[in-house]
Amino acid sequence: MDGIVINRHRDVDLTFSAPPSKSYTHRALFCAALADGISIIENPLYSGDTEVTCRALGQLGVRTERTADGIIVDGCGGVMPPGGDVTIDCEGSGTSLRFLATFALLYPGRVTLTGSERMKERPVGELAGALRDIGGDIRFTERPGYPPVEISGKLSGGSVSIDASKSSQFISSMLIPAPYAEYPVDIIPEGHIASESYLEITVDVMEKFGATVERMPDGGFHVPSGAYVPRDYRVEGDYSSASYLFAIAAICGGTVTVKNLNPDSVQGDTAFAGALASMGCRVTKDAGSVTVTRKGPLSGVDIDMSSSPDTVQTLAAVAAFADSPTRITGVSHLIYKESDRIGAIGRMVEGCGAGFEYNDNEGEIVITPGKIHGFVLDPVDDHRTAMSGAVIGLGAGGVTIKDPECVGKSYPGFWDDLRRAGL
């Protein structure tokens, strides 16, 4: 598909169902893989990234099967069968590669993790250093600190410090296999943790599968020796994906209701609806859905989005239609995502006629409204850029999204959902 042209719409009245959470699906797959017995991951997200994880688990000897009831995972009890050295292509899935890095220390052989050209630009040096401190033998085969990376050794445990200022996934990677280390694991973060809210998701899933995770007074994590218990686990709806649907109401005016959302979710991106409320929308919640309505003007907002990074692009799209500037802070780590998302926001916002400034020293973006118009957006294989651009198209009209299939990384049904809604 060469591209999709998005036309302008006004005064919508729509209902959607949020797709399952990619973050929860990944974590449930890894915890189930380590449990001793059969687990069923119900309502999982079937996407490019989660397929990478299932395939990788299979290469390491953990069987997964996609069925009508969900994904069946035949856990290994923390002891993976011998299978020789393996090379795993993680394609564009940073979550898969980073989570596999610590997981590989439980495999009785050498594991090489590689991926797309963009993946080879995404740093894992800080994680590698921490893994060496707890028993790993880590070697970078091309560029120090970046994939491809060879991993062998063992998960011995003990106390380890880690710089997670580029990604909280470094800590999540070490947390998930920690119950199976030879000794209890203490993980001490150094300085600021990027996207810290995602650690709440990691701990939530670990505890649901029977592990114990204790928060230490210094902000660290203590994981005693233990084991995961196999279970049937239902994945909740994804607030990151729901943000694009909420944004339709904010930009087009009218009402959008999104079902399949947990009102008590620990997902950091639950904050996005609150940001829209600050900009002039009305937000209401019930037991399983969230509704966003806009009738009056949109105002700019000053907001820290360090704990909800996956919705920064969505908010930037909405900000282009406000009647005053928007300042977004806590975003410097976005350059390490599937693409350089700071640059992507700039191309998207300026492409539609709004103003964009980025202060690297402060880690802040300022978006100034302008005369909005159509444009052509190349998302550079970044799903979130494509969907944010589509939302701008619904407000501006005449926006062409190139390479639309890239949304399959997190929301494969996005275009179908828009079509069914008459958009």
Short description:
The protein has twelve helices and 23 strands. It has helices at residues 22-34, 48-59, 94-103, 125-133, 169-175, 197-208, 239-252, 271-278, 312-319, 341-351, 383-396, 414-420, and strands at 3-6, 12-17, 38-42, 63-67, 70-74, 86-89, 111-114, 136-140, 149-153, 158-162, 185-189, 214-215, 221-223, 232-234, 254-259, 282-285, 289-294, 302-304, 326-329, 355-359, 364-368, 376-377, 399-402.
Structural account:
- The protein is α/β, with parallel strands linked by helices.
- Helices cover 30% and strands 24% of the residues.
- It has 12 helices and 23 strands.
- It has helices spanning 22-34, 48-59, 94-103, 125-133, 169-175, 197-208, 239-252, 271-278, 312-319, 341-351, 383-396, 414-420; strands spanning 3-6, 12-17, 38-42, 63-67, 70-74, 86-89, 111-114, 136-140, 149-153, 158-162, 185-189, 214-215, 221-223, 232-234, 254-259, 282-285, 289-294, 302-304, 326-329, 355-359, 364-368, 376-377, 399-402.
- The strands form 6 sheets. It has a 4-stranded mixed beta sheet with strand order 2-15-17-16, covered by helices on one side. It has a 4-stranded mixed beta sheet with strand order 4-5-3-14. A 4-stranded mixed beta sheet has the order 6-7-9-8.
Report helical residue fraction.
25-40%
Instruction: Catalogue the unreliable spans.
Output: none
Mean pLDDT across the residues is 93
Instruction: Give the neighbour order of strands across the main sheet.
Output: 2-15-17-16
Total helical segments: 12
> Which structural class do you get from the secondary structure elements?
alpha/beta
What is the percentage of strand-forming residues? 15-25%
Give the total of beta strands: 23
Q: Specify Rg, calculated over alpha carbons.
A: 21 Å
Largest sheet: 4 strands, mixed
Task: State the distance separating the first and last CA atoms.
Answer: 18 Å
Oligomer: single chain
Shape estimate: globular
